[in-house]
C-alpha cells in the first residue's frame, strides 16, 4: 500500500502541473493577466551557478585553509566574468570579437588554475612563476586573433589550449587516485578528461556553431553536467583530504608511540632490553614456560677489568667495549631468548634451557669470547664472568634468582 502511494506522487505532480498550465491558459483566454514568461540566458545561468560554487569553495577554504582549494576557487571564479562577457550584447563588431578573445583567455586561465591545483596537491611543482608570465601575452594574442581573424580562430586556439590543460589536470588527478584511492579525485579526473574531449569537439564544430547554431545546446548541456559533477568531486575531495590527513596523523602518532615504547624498554647504548622490559615480560614468560612445561634459566654476565678500562682509557673506550659485548651476546644467544643490560657492565640473559644446559652455555660464551677474531681490537685482559641458575618450577618472581646468579658470577670471577 505504501509503495502504491509512493508511485502516485509523480503522477499527482504531473496532473497538478497540467492543471496549472490549463488554468493559466484559460485565464489568459479570459483576459485575466498571468505572469509573463521570462527567458533565461544559459550563459548568465552558468555565471550564476559558478558564483554559487565559488561561494561554497570560499567556505571550504575558510575552514581548511588549503592552497589547492583556493586555486579551485580562483578557477571557478573566472568562469563568472567569462560567461558574462559572452552573455551581453555589443554594439560594434570589434568589441564583440574582443569579448570573445577575452572570454577565451579567461577560460584558459581557469583551466590553468585547475591544473595548478592538482600540481599543488601532488607537490609536483610543474607550475612555476616564470611560466605564468606567458599568460598575459597569450591573452593579448587571443584578443588580437579574434579581432583580426574572427572569433572562430580565437575559439579554436583557446579551446585547444584549454583542452590540453584539462587533460593534463585529469592525468594529475588520476595519479592521485592511484596514490591515495580518493573517489573525489577520480570523479574530477573523469570530468577533466570529459571537458577536454568536449573542448576538442567544439573546435571541430565551431564553424557550424557560429553560422547555424547547431550543437550549441548539446555541448552546453554536456558541459553543464560535467561541471556539476566537477563541483561534487571537489567537495568530495576536500572531505577525503581531511580524512586522509587524520589517517596520516593517526599513523604518525602510532609510529611515535611505538618509538617511545621501544625507547622505554631499550638501552640506548647497547640496544639490549633494559630492566623495565624484564619487569614487563617476566610474568608472561614464567606463565608460558609453566604452560608448556619448558625449562628456564638465567645467565648473569659481567665484563672483567671493565672499571680499569674506564679509568685508564676513558668512558668512550668503555662504551665501545659494552657495545661489542652486546653484539657478541646477541649473536650467541637465540632470538627467542632475551638479553638485558642489567646496569654498568652487567648483562642478564633469560634463556629456555635446563640448568645443565645453562652451565654449558656459560662456558661456551666465555670460550667463544676469548677466541673471537675481532677480540684483538679490545683492550687487553677483557673477558666474561658468567653465573647461571635454573628457574625452579612454580617460581613467580625472578629477582631472588637474579641475585643468586649474580653471586655465582662473582664466584666464577674469582676462579679466573
Q: How much strand?
A: 5-15%
**What is the average per-residue confidence, as pLDDT, rounded to a whole number?**
87
The class by helix and strand makeup works out as: alpha+beta
How many angstroms separate the termini?
Answer: 98 Å
Strand order of the biggest β-sheet:
2-3-1-4
Q: Can you summarize the main beta sheet?
A: 4 strands, antiparallel
Order of helices and strands: HHHHHHHHHHEHHEEHEH
> Per the principal axes of the C-alpha atoms, what is the gross shape?
rod-shaped
Q: How big is the Rg?
A: 40 Å
Question: What's the total helix number?
Answer: 14
Q: What are the segments in which pLDDT stays under 50 over at least 5 consecutive residues?
A: 1-28
Domains, number: 2
Percent of residues in helices comes to: over 70%
Number of strands: 4
Task: Give an overview in words.
The structure is a single chain. The chain has 416 residues and is of the alpha+beta class. It folds into two domains: 42-254; 275-415, Alpha-Beta Plaits (2-Layer Sandwich). The protein has 14 helices and four strands. The protein has helices spanning 2-29, 42-64, 67-87, 93-122, 129-132, 134-149, 151-180, 183-211, 216-265, 275-291, 306-313, 315-332, 355-371, 399-415; strands at residues 297-303, 338-343, 346-351, 384-390. Strands 2-3-1-4 form a four-stranded antiparallel beta sheet, sandwiched between helices. A hairpin with a 2-residue loop joins strand 2 and strand 3. Helix 2 packs parallel to helix 9, helix 4 (93-122) runs antiparallel to helix 6 and helix 4 runs parallel beside helix 7. The longest helix is centred in the middle third of the chain and has 50 residues, at 216-265. The chain is rod-shaped and about 115 Å long.
Amino acid at each position: 500500500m505504501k509503495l502504491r502511494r509512493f508511485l502516485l506522487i509523480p503522477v499527482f505532480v504531473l496532473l497538478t502541473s497540467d492543471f496549472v498550465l490549463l488554468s493559466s491558459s484559460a485565464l489568459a483566454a479570459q483576459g485575466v493577466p498571468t505572469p509573463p514568461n521570462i527567458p533565461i540566458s544559459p550563459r548568465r545561468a552558468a555565471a550564476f551557478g559558478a558564483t554559487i560554487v565559488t561561494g561554497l569553495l570560499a567556505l571550504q577554504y575558510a575552514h581548511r585553509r588549503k592552497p589547492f582549494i583556493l586555486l579551485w576557487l580562483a578557477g571557478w571564479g573566472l568562469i563568472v566574468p567569462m560567461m558574462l562577457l559572452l552573455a551581453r550584447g555589443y554594439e560594434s563588431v570589434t568589441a564583440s570579437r574582443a569579448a570573445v578573445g577575452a572570454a577565451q583567455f579567461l577560460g584558459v586561465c581557469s583551466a590553468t588554475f585547475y591544473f595548478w591545483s592538482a600540481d599543488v596537491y601532488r607537490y609536483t611543482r610543474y607550475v612555476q612563476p616564470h611560466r605564468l608570465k606567458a599568460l598575459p601575452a597569450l591573452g593579448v594574442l587571443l584578443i588580437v586573433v579574434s579581432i583580426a581573424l574572427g572569433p572562430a580562430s580565437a575559439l579554436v586556439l583557446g579551446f585547444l589550449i584549454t583542452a590540453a590543460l584539462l587533460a593534463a589536470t585529469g592525468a594529475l588527478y588520476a595519479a592521485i587516485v592511484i596514490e591515495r584511492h580518493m573517489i573525489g579525485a577520480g570523479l574530477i579526473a573523469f570530468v577533466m578528461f570529459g571537458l577536454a574531449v568536449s573542448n576538442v569537439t567544439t573546435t571541430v564544430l565551431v564553424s557550424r556553431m557560429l553560422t547555424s547554431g547547431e550543437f550549441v545546446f548539446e555541448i552546453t548541456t554536456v558541459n553543464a553536467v560535467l561541471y556539476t559533477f566537477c563541483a561534487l568531486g571537489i567537495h568530495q575531495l576536500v572531505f577525503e583530504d581531511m580524512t586522509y590527513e587524520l589517517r596520516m596523523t593517526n599513523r604518525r602518532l602510532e609510529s611515535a608511540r611505538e618509538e617511545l615504547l621501544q625507547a622505554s624498554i631499550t638501552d640506548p647504548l647497547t640496544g639490549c632490553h633494559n630492566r623495565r622490559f624484564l619487569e614487563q615480560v617476566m610474568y608472561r614468560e614464567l606463565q608460558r614456560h609453566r604452560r608448556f612445561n619448558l625449562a628456564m634459566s638465567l645467565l648473569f654476565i659481567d665484563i672483567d677489568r671493565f672499571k680499569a678500562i674506564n679509568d685508564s682509557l676513558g668512558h668512550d673506550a668503555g662504551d665501545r667495549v659494552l657495545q661489542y659485548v652486546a653484539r657478541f651476546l646477541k649473536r650467541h644467544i637465540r632470538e627467542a631468548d632475551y638479553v638485558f643490560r642489567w646496569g654498568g657492565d652487567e648483562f642478564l640473559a633469560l634463556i629456555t634451557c635446563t640448568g645443565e644446559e645453562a652451565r654449558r652455555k656459560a662456558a661456551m660464551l666465555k670460550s667463544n669470547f676469548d677466541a673471537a677474531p675481532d677480540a684483538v681490537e679490545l683492550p687487553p685482559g677483557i673477558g666474561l664472568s658468567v653465573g647461571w641458575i635454573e628457574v625452579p618450577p612454580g617460581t613467580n618472581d625472578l629477582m631472588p634468582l637474579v641475585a643468586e646468579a649474580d653471586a655465582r658470577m662473582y664466584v666464577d670471577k674469582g676462579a679466573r
